[in-house]
Amino acid sequence: MVMTGPQGAWADDAATAEMGADVADGLTYPQTKTVDVVDTAFGIKIPDPYRWLEDDVRVNPAVADWVKAQNKVTDAYLDTLPGKDVLAARMKKLFDYERFGLPEKAGGHYFFTKNDGLQNQSVLYVRKGLTGKDRILIDPNTWAKDGATALDSWVPSKNGKLLAYSIQDGGSDWRTIKVLDTATGTILTDEIKWAKFTNISWVGNDGFLYSRFAEPKEGAAFQQLNYNQTIYYHKIGTPQSEDKAIYATPDKPEYGHSAQVTHDGKWALITTSQGTDEKYELHIMPLGKKPSWKAQPLVKGLEHEWQLVEGVGNKLWFITNKDAPRLKLVSVDLKAKVLNRAPCEGSSDAGDVCMAEGFAFTDIVPERAETLTRAQIVGERLIMSYIKDAKSMAMMTNLAGGPAKEISLNAIGTASGFSGTPGDPETFYGFSSFNQPGAVYRFDSRTGQSTSFAEPKLSFNPADFAIEQVFYPSKDGTKIPMFIVHKKGLDLSKGAPTLLYGYGGFNISQTPTYSATRMAWIQSGGVFALANLRGGGEYGKPWHDAGRLMNKQNVFDDFAAAGEYLVAKGYTAKGKLAIEGRSNGGLLVGASLNQRPDLFAAGHAAVGVMDMTRFDRFTAGRYWVDDYGSPAKEADLKMQLTYSPYHNITSGVDYPAVIVSTADTDDRVVPGHSFKYTAALQAAKTGSRPKIIRIESRAGHGSGKPTDKLIEEYSDIYAFLAKWTGLELK
């Protein structure tokens, strides 16, 4: 299929007829039927011959048969690839190290996850005191034979006696919340269904706040649009049917809501959003002994980003981009606007206070050249995490924002964590890089000293790998950062097979982190490159804005320019460059293959958004209009049609080798995107290199995927990319 321009002039040699099987690189594609479906919007006719592939594989037997037929062809082809077993063995060795999650402290106990190495899911442990004996609390490896049921989030109560945790099954975004007794490990009768995109926020030790949607219609759980998210309070020991709805906006069903409780338990903050853009309204609920659950406005209007840092008494700290594109830290005194000292209406707690509007926020730490990403109060200090040219740095000040001191990280990488509580100087943070799996450190905010809590024992020497950061010009001259990683001493005289990864969207920053699958590529003699495209959050709001809505083409230009730079500088050569991206990055790969098939040898589009005219009709897709625009608006639709991967496949042009990956339980980016895109690729005349799809079962959008499935998936995919870039696997 090819669409020549946004006005909708289509040329397709078989767009409305039954597609015959095609042959590429010795494989025969399954037949994919077409349907006569044409949408008309703003005078533009948009054929959609594979609309039927949007149906849920669990509901439509024809879609299930199509999936089986595609997987049969793909599996047979992948089994012929040389070196796949070499990659799998290398990945298995690279995954096989003991790794820890960041500890959470409650009631004198430390809660943390640990994976012995090749366990499909990490196990939750508890330790009494810093040097106590580790005890297993939750082992999700016992939950499902295929390892695809995962422990998602977990939050101990303030006294550490109870722990609420959420369960993710088959990679779905839906969560089930349960509670256990931490002393005995006994699972209580409490069970919460249909939670999604939720925090778990304890109110004292007797209950917690969470967000959920209504139970979806039968058979629609993986596709139905999500509206009317509501915050509930669950009291321990009661059934979900008795949970109290404490905040909702039925007059604005598109709004989503989450709740956070300050560590002292005095306030609940409700954050309201409409999409993926960081534009929030804030409401405050005074809690006290008997909360009235009455929300009062703190910040009106969905205009700016607000991240709660912490609350102490009547004072709250926030990160915001209001008048600070790279963000700053502010505080607000809730008591300064008290209407009266009498109890709030409907409350019997004399400790409650009622608030008026017009709060004044005070700057504590002003905007810097670096982008502020996170802040925490630890003891009597503020610890702030920044991104500087896509690398982590951390600063510490007093609670008034007084003299700033940098926390030494000593390497190019990504620091995470620093969670803590007022009055307690102890915190933990993790640090990782391309050549360094995550290590966990204990930090004392009084002394500024870091000590090791858990460092991995590795099967390789990190010093054997070179990490370089370059800045290359995009099409419009903008300098884009890019990390390049390879073995020291790698022969680059003729260019090496190279894997270029990108994302470029939703204000999400791509920073240096360790990946066992990527390290297997690098150890095999390949180069790995990560481009920090516009649309991400590396340089704050301006960087994000420069790669979304009407500026989305900048992202594809940045990615192509990264490939051109790698070839021009001799890291790789024509015919040796592969590209990869996930989700919004899958869209990036699909659009880039259409726009620059001459530049790339192969591409992996994972769980991508491939139909830009219909993404907003499924599950959480409606939120993405903040980045993509709305197909219901003429200007947005015309822009979307210029790059939509499904609509811009050009017949008669030789394409790179393409492998698409998705999962039947992906309810974030529904698999119909990948199904339709693959069918269109296979039907078009795009040369002899293969266009195949790998469809996983019970895997979802990616989170919670078991280790053995990750090894199987990426040994398949990287063997495919290796074949088409000339990487010898031995």
TrEMBL record:
One of its GO terms (biological process) is proteolysis. GO terms for cellular component: cytosol. Residues 30-454 form the Peptidase S9A N-terminal domain. It catalyses: Hydrolysis of Pro-|-Xaa >> Ala-|-Xaa in oligopeptides. Residues 514-726 form the Peptidase S9 prolyl oligopeptidase catalytic domain. The keyword Hydrolase applies. Keywords: Hydrolase, Protease, Serine protease. It comes from the Bacteria. GO terms for molecular function: oligopeptidase activity; serine-type endopeptidase activity. Belongs to the peptidase S9A family. This is prolyl oligopeptidase. The lineage of its organism: Bacteria, Pseudomonadati, Pseudomonadota, Alphaproteobacteria, Sphingomonadales.
